[in-house]
Each structure stands twice: as structure tokens, then as C-alpha cells.
What does this fold into?
Amino acid sequence: MSRSVQSNNMNILDRPLGRSGGRVSGSSDATSVSLSAFAYVYSELVQYHQGRAASVSELERRLESAGYGVGLKVLELVAYRSKEVRRH
It folds into this structure.
């Protein structure tokens, strides 16, 4: 079975974080696209909340609440993966 077919059948929790679609390529193109996408989404998130905040403290509060959910999911994923490594 080829590597690309295997990556399509992988659980989303088992896919690499740094590469799009679970590809294992030697080039940094996948990482560059991922970084560019992250920078764009982050910029849009900040602009969205900046336009709706009346003060700097409100902007900080809005960004903190938006980022909390993302950080929580990443933490869960890292903890899940570390437990899987210890089991094998």
C-alpha cells in the first residue's frame, strides 16, 4: 500500500502537525504553506477582534478567549500522542 493511501486512512490524531494532509515530503513547501496560512488566519483574527474592541484591555480579553480553545485542543493532542508512545 502506498504512503499517500495510508495517510488518507489515518486517524486525524495520528497525522503530523507540521505537514498538510499527512504528507511526508522532504521539501519545506508543505511547512511554508502551513506557516503562511497560519500567519494569514492569525492576522485576520487580530483584525476582526481589533475592529470590535473598544479598548486595548478588551482586545486582549477577546484574543485570549479566542486562543484558549485552540491551545486546549493542541494540549489535548500532545497529551494523547505522548500516552500512545508510552503504550507501545
Observations:
- Residues 76 and 82 are 10 Å apart (CA to CA).
- Confidence is low (pLDDT under 50) at residues 1-5.
- The radius of gyration is 17 Å.
